[in-house]
Amino acid sequence: MTEETLDIASDGGYDDIAQFLQSYIDEYQDFLSWIGTSVDDVGPGTMTMSIPYDQKLTNVRPATDTDRRPDIHGGIAATLIDTVGGLALRTELENPVDASIATINLNVNYLRPATGDLTATANVIRVGGTVGVSEVTVESTTPDGETKEVATGQGSYRVFRRED
């Protein structure tokens, strides 16, 4: 995608960023694609991504514990926190495509088991010349349809900007 087709200055262009990111995940990020990651919303300094509940993403339960469905493995929430936290930084860059972002530090706090679809919303705290920080909240739907926070996290990322 060229700079012209991904111009967030003209009309907000965040839909273009969301479509670009979703296409990139589907085409080049096998793991994120396999777990069903979708880009739901992109705005200035924020991004929301989700992963649907799938049995393949759960912790194994003993055969005797059949009264409730298995919880999603915590690594899936951590992956979502890391991914959406880093990608949200791009919304604050002058040219979101011409930079690379690498995780420096990731902190995840698990609040309760995730028993349904996961949705993570990242908010950019700051993007400096070389380091950016995002805070993320992950929510999950319960079997009775209630939405609850299941994890929070913060990521620090190294931002490599292309020199002009």
TrEMBL record:
Q: Which SUPFAM superfamilies match?
A: Thioesterase/thiol ester dehydrase-isomerase
The terms under GO molecular function for this entry are: hydrolase activity
- Cross-referenced NCBIfam families, in alphabetical order? unchar_dom_1
Q: Does the keyword Hydrolase apply?
A: yes
Q: Which residues form the signal peptide?
A: none
Q: Does the keyword 4Fe-4S apply?
A: no
Q: Which UniProt keywords apply?
A: Hydrolase
**Positions of the region Disordered?**
142-164
Pfam families for the chain: 4HBT (PF03061)
Instruction: Quote the protein name from its UniProt record.
Output: Thioesterase superfamily protein
Q: Where is the Thioesterase domain?
A: 72-141
Family matches, as InterPro entries: HotDog_dom_sf, PAAI_dom, Thioestr_dom
